[in-house]
Amino acid sequence: MANTSEIRNGLCIEYSNDVYQVVEFLHVKPGKGPAFVRTKLKSMTSGKVVDNTFPSSHKIDIVRVERRKFQFLYNDDMGYHFMNNETYEQTTIDKKFIEQPGLLKEGSGVDVLFHAEKDVPLTMEMPQHIILQVTYTEPGLKGDTATNAQKPATVETGAEIRVPLFINEGDFIKIDTRTAQYLERAKQ
């Protein structure tokens, strides 16, 4: 058992007979009354996000989570299939537990979080940035870079994102996997 002073982003706790990950937290000390911690929790089993407020003296159960390196293989109607890089064992994760499934490229490395006591996969985390090739976009015109205008582009995984007008087919771009937004042009 721990108390609310140990709450931080990414911490996994057991709450309401489920495993939740802390997405956001804010420690509040009002001028009048006791302190409390306002949190935003994401369920590791259903993907649902809930808001909760803990009193400062509240005890919480921390869940030990192991992070293991996996490689994305493929997806089908059963889910997304990953292979452990050390043991070559395969595991399947449902689409609802993956933040940006459209950005997953076959063969890319990811981290899979496991419940340490039960050895059950909870969720999958992609690297913060990924480099993908643009497979289709409307051609850009010379001189269109002065404004911050954007156009749709399809990348090699089939996902559609917004890119600046100077990006062309065949270009490699760096994408933020948390927001699925274009960051910069990349050399490949």
Describe the secondary-structure layout.
Elements: E1 2-3, E2 12-15, E3 18-28, E4 36-43, E5 49-55, E6 59-62, E7 65-76, E8 79-84, E9 90-93, E10 109-115, E11 120-125, E12 129-137, E13 150-155, E14 160-164, E15 172-176, E16 181-186
Antiparallel strand pairs: 1-6, 2-3, 2-6, 3-4, 4-5, 7-8, 7-10, 8-9, 10-11, 12-13, 12-15, 13-14, 15-16
User: Structural class of the secondary structure composition?
Assistant: mainly beta
Strand order in the largest sheet? 1-6-2-3-4-5
Compressed to H and E, one letter per element, the order equals: EEEEEEEEEEEEEEEE
Q: What proportion of the residues form beta strands (DSSP E)?
A: over 45%
CATH fold descriptor of the largest domain? SH3 type barrels
CATH class call of the largest domain = Mainly Beta
Distance between the termini: 49 Å
Quaternary state reads: single chain
